[in-house]
Amino acid sequence: MELADIIGKQNADQIQTSGAIRFHIAGDTGRASGDSTDQDDVAEAMTSDYQAGHDATNPAFFFHLGDVIYGARKSALYRDEFYRPYMKYPGKILAIPGNHDGETFTGTDPTPLQAFLDNFCAAQATVPKIASDVGIFRETMTQPGVYWLLQAPFVNIIGLYSNIAEGPGNLIGAKGDKKQLTWLQATLTDLKKAKDVGDSRALVIATHHPVFSEGGHSGSAEMLQQIDQACTAAGIAPHALLAGHTHTYQRYTRTIAKPIAAQVICVDVGDGGHAASPVKAATGQPVGDAKFVKSLRGYGYVLVTVDKNRMVLEMFETTNGEKTSFDTATIDLATYRVT
Questions:
Q1: 3-class SS at 271?
Q2: pLDDT tens digits, residue range 54-76?
Q3: 24, 30 contact by CB (below 8 A)
Q4: Is the pLDDT of residue 149 over 90?
Q5: Percent of the chain whose predicted confidence (pLDDT) is above 90
Q6: Measured between alpha carbons, how far is residue 165 from residues 100, 151, 171, 221 in Å?
Q7: Positive or negative: CA dihedral 315, 325, 336, 211
Q8: Over pLDDT 70: what percentage of the chain?
Q9: Does 42 have pLDDT greater than 80?
Q10: Residue 136's closest CA among 43, 70, 9, 52?
Q11: How many angstroms separate the CA atoms of 215 and 247, rounded?
């Protein structure tokens, strides 16, 4: 996808001219026990980042990191657990599916991912009846699939599907299906070719399951190895790895030696509204080849800002309905140094 496909060429050109792109990230928003308060608080706080008349500097979209809907009757639940909470959110919403989006239930959800595909990978953008019936006019998205590449001013984002299992994540599908891995390898190779001729955009890779986690759910070492192997073969390194799933906010700084010597920001932003979990790690604790930096048991989202030189991820906490800046990480796009 190109950003112009999502928000229109004029808006995408304005972002390019402005010198930076901004977008929201959060995951795990499906309600716990029917209570929408925490999800609504996050949605309201993200909406407050928009200012009338500032189209070029407003967030370009919300990137949902998966687990949009938990439990059975997913198609029906989209009205109250997706369209209602984001009724006033002005931006488009992209997504990768989480394990709960792919789960099946006999009689109500027999086909994996069907409701997700209907709402995020529709053949054309239309307002679904479950939304229009209650006066909500958000259109379905037309993503090419459950994994994709978004090329935007200043950033390339790869969204991947890390499968149905509660954990750990894996990029290989049922019966050993390696189509996604093959696609990832080819996509990274193309991005490296573009980089070699002057494309200096940041590279972000997102999965629902985290590669590192010390709370909520465990990390996915095998999936990290799959991503590493594809990046090494292509000769390109991401600036950030994004994930949800943990029902927490966690940030790590990863140090790698190949394909280049680099630091990588790894963040779990699974605190979009569903059942906050504790984190057991201590500041500075090593986790694999990464170092644990900071965490939050609560709710919130991250605002990502990318220009030609750096990417900044600022986490806003919304626990108890108050929006406050909780954490900030910056990576230099040329040197791969995190501060």
A1: coil
A2: 989 999 999 999 999 999 999 99
A3: no
A4: yes
A5: 94
A6: 9, 29, 11, 15
A7: negative
A8: 99
A9: yes
A10: 43
A11: 8
The rounded Cα 256 to chain-centroid distance in angstroms is 22
- What's the pTM? 0.97
At 166 the pLDDT is: 92
The yes-or-no verdict on residue 33 having pLDDT over 80 is: no
CB 313 within 8 A of CB 301: no
Cβ contact 272:296 at 8 Å: no
Helices (H) and strands (E) in the chain, counts: 9, 16
Q: 207 phi and psi, to 5 degrees?
A: -135, 160
What six digits make up the tokens of 281?
């790690």
Pair 78, 189: CB distance under 8 Å: no
User: How do residues 199-224 score in pLDDT, each as one tens digit?
Assistant: 999 999 999 999 999 987 999 999 99
Residue 118: phi and psi, rounded to 5, are -65, -35
> Which residues are CB-neighbours of 183 under 8 A, at least 6 positions away?
147
Residue for token digits 């040197």?
A: 335
Domain ranges in the chain?
Answer: 3-332
Residue 131, H or E segment: helix 129-132
Are 245 and 168 spatial neighbours (Cβ–Cβ below 8 Å)? no
Task: Give the closest residue to 279 by CA, choosing from 339, 327, 323.
Answer: 327
Residue 32 has pLDDT above 80, yes or no: no
- Look at residue 255 and give its three-state secondary structure: strand
What does the pLDDT look like over 68-125, one tens digit per residue?
Answer: 999 999 999 999 999 999 999 999 999 999 999 999 999 999 999 999 999 999 999 9
In this structure, which CATH number among 3.40.50.300, 3.60.21.10, 3.20.20.60, 3.20.20.70 belongs to the domain 3-332?
A: 3.60.21.10
Q: Are 261 and 238 in contact (CB under 8 A)?
A: no
Closest-CA residue to 160 (of 213, 216, 231, 260): 231
Alpha-carbon gap, residue 122 to 78, rounded angstroms = 14
The encoded tokens of residue 202 equal 């940041």
